[in-house]
């Protein structure tokens, strides 16, 4: 009886009920953890399947690109041979492009008179790596017969190789082809064609290369026969080194001053 009384002290009252509640709580937590583990496992399996499907999709897309690139190669070769008959074709087509045309200086436009062919070749093993080649006739600017920009976008880190340009005497001093200061005349920011050609700092973000690959390669005759399109929101201004970015066009609305009536005396 004394033992029972000792167990019935205020300090010991309710202890068995608390342990039962804790055990029930532990069972609930264990069950919750078990359900989360199953969900985490199923989630991981689903994500692995998605990653595998994406990998298969890339391989299939790359296979389709390789298939059609082989077909395009002969067609591009035939088209380039026919375009060599047209005088100043590439000069006119590139000058009319709404983005590439903005980086051309007067010296660049004169240089493209001697460009006989523009080629964009994708690698057979990896279609994401490509080359842009410019074939040149004899010209007063360069001694090179072919200049090339080679992009390796799947490498780690990504890099870009440029042909070693052999300028003729006093050309760089006269025209300053390699000036890389940003220009307000261009939407991209390059000051000239050669400034873009020799810039290999950001190969993946090279917008000019993108337009050469997907616009000038696929349908250059469209830009040859169409005048350049003026992009809205920007205007061309002379280069100002304090503000070398495109200036948005703002419409100025002139407010007429309201003339009040003169009071009579």
Q: How would you portray this structure in words?
A:
The chain is α+β, with helices and mostly antiparallel strands and 265 residues long. The chain has helices at residues 2-7, 15-83, 89-96, 106-111, 171-175, 193-197, 207-216, 220-225, and strands spanning 115-122, 130-136, 146-152, 159-162. It has a four-stranded antiparallel β-sheet. It starts with a helix and ends in a 40-residue tail after the last helix.
Helix content: 40-55%
Report the count of strand segments: 4
Query: CA-to-CA gap between the ends?
Result: 120 Å
The pLDDT mean sits at: 75
What top-tier CATH class of the largest domain fits best? Alpha Beta
User: How large is the count of helical segments?
Assistant: 8
> Which fold name fills CATH's third level, the topology of the largest domain?
Arylsulfatase, C-terminal domain
Runs in which pLDDT lies below 50 for 5 or more consecutive residues are 1-15, 233-255
- Write the CATH architecture name of the largest domain: 2-Layer Sandwich
Largest sheet: 4 strands, antiparallel
State the fourth-level CATH superfamily of the largest domain: Nucleosome assembly protein
Element string (H = helix, E = strand): HHHHEEEEHHHH
Radius of gyration: 34 Å
Shape: elongated
Strand arrangement in the largest pleated sheet: 1-2-3-4
């Amino acid at each position: 009886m004394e033992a029972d009384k000792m167990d019935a002290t205020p300090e010991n009252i309710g202890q068995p009920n608390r342990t039962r509640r804790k055990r029930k709580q532990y069972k609930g937590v264990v069950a919750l953890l078990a359900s989360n583990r199953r969900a985490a496992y199923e989630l991981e399996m689903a994500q692995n399947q998605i990653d595998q499907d994406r990998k298969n999709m890339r391989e299939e897309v790359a296979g389709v690109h390789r298939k059609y690139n082989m077909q395009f190669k002969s067609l591009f070769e035939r088209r380039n041979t026919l375009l060599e008959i047209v005088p100043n074709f590439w000069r006119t087509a590139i000058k009319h492009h709404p983005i590439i045309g903005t980086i051309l200086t007067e010296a660049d436009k004169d240089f493209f008179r001697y460009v006989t062919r523009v080629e964009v070749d994708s690698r057979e093993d990896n279609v994401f790596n490509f080359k842009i080649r410019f074939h040149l006739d004899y010209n007063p600017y360069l001694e090179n017969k072919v200049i090339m920009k080679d992009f390796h976008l799947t490498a780690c880190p990504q890099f870009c190789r440029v042909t070693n340009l052999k300028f003729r005497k006093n050309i760089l001093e006269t025209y300053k082809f390699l000036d890389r200061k940003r220009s307000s005349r261009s939407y991209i920011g390059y000051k000239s064609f050669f400034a873009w050609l020799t810039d290999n700092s950001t190969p993946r973000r090279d917008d000019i290369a993108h337009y050469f690959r997907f616009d000038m390669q696929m349908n250059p005759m469209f830009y040859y026969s169409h005048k350049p399109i003026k992009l809205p929101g920007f205007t061309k201004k002379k280069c100002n080194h304090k503000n070398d970015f495109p200036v948005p066009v703002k419409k100025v609305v002139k407010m007429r001053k309201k003339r009040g009536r003169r009071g009579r005396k």
